Amino acid sequence: MPRGLDKLKHIVVLMMENRSFDHMLGELKDVDSRIDGLTGNEFNLDTAGRQVFAEPKAQFQGQLNPDPDHHFAAVDLQIFNGDTAAHRVPTMQGFIKSYFNQRRDVAHSRKIMYTFPPHKLPVLTTLATEFALFNGWFASVPGPTLCNRAFAHYGTSFGHVGMEIWYANQQYKSIYERLLDDGSTAKIYYFDQASSTMEVVNLLQNQPRMFGTYDQFLEDCENGTLPQYSFVEPNYTDHDGDGGTIIASDQHPDHHVGEGERFIASVYNAIRQSPLWENTALL
User: Fold this and answer.
1) Count of H helices and E strands in the chain?
2) Chain-wide mean pLDDT for the chain?
3) pLDDT digits (tens, 9 = 90+) for 11-29
4) Shortest CA distance to 26 belongs to which of 100, 103, 124, 168?
5) Residue 12: in which H helix or E strand, if any?
6) What is the distance between the alpha carbons of residues 206 and 4, in angstroms, rounded to a whole number?
7) Which end of the chain is least crowded, N or C, by CB within 10 Å?
8) How confident is the model at residue 170 (pLDDT cuts 50, 70, 90)?
9) Closest CA to 91 of 20, 141, 43
């Protein structure tokens, strides 16, 4: 048994939004060659035929507006560059072409190749270098948010690849229902009412006992009362709160990546300072 696994009693999953491995962590290959990141040779052709290489010029906010298209058809273009042959292979050469379609601006489309240098993401960089980083943890569906979050909750998107707000669910139980039926404990912690809408509409129908707020997550960490399985939702929207404007922390383009860093740190620190630190895994 791997070291420490015999102590494992709690799993906490935090799922952020719509940033790629190379965009966020690809530059870490220079820090640790085991990381399957960027070599400096990666490029796409823009719509003018110019080679555009990946460069560490990403900003926290303001570059990726409009949001890069991540509907199923657009991601297919990004991966296969328009090839529809039966035995096609992924070339990853369609990212600029896809982003150009958003604004029809050649110069702006090149920004899709910008990456974050490690020093700009100190929280993710520290977690990746001091703990463990999965080189090949891919999206379950090469497409948008809801179908991928359905996979996280159910292990399937019920055949959906889009952003339908309601997924027919008659044959599969969620991971939370399965755990509760087995006598185990599980809970989804959402940030606040304005950010509890990402696919969990299915789950909200019959299982109010499965939900808690992010403030409750912090309290449960402090009190050592986390369930055996926890799923933490970031804040998906800029909106008004009791103390003023609440800034989105999900890192979805073009939300502020630094705000997401702060949120990730708050989750980590809540667990780190908890009496459950020795027997909890954060994914």
Assistant:
1) 10, 9
2) 93
3) 999 999 999 999 999 999 9
4) 124
5) strand 10-14
6) 36
7) N
8) low
9) 43
Question: Hunting for tokens 């989750």 — which residue is that?
Answer: 267
Q: Amino acid identity, residue 192?
A: D
Residue 47, token pair as written in the block = 């719509």
Torsion over CA: 184, 190, 192, 198 (sign): negative
What predicted TM-score, i.e. pTM, was given to this entire model? 0.94
Distance CA 236, CA 280 (A): 25
For residue 114 the two structure tokens come to 């910008």
Task: Specify whether the CB–CB gap between 115 and 59 falls below 8 A.
Answer: no
Residue 275 structure tokens: 């009496």
78-101: pLDDT as tens digits: 999 999 999 999 999 999 999 999
Cα–Cα nearest to 189, from 279, 243, 246, 263: 263
- Percentage, residues of the chain above pLDDT 70: 98
Give the up-direction half-sphere exposure of residue 108: CA atoms within 13 A in the CB hemisphere: 15
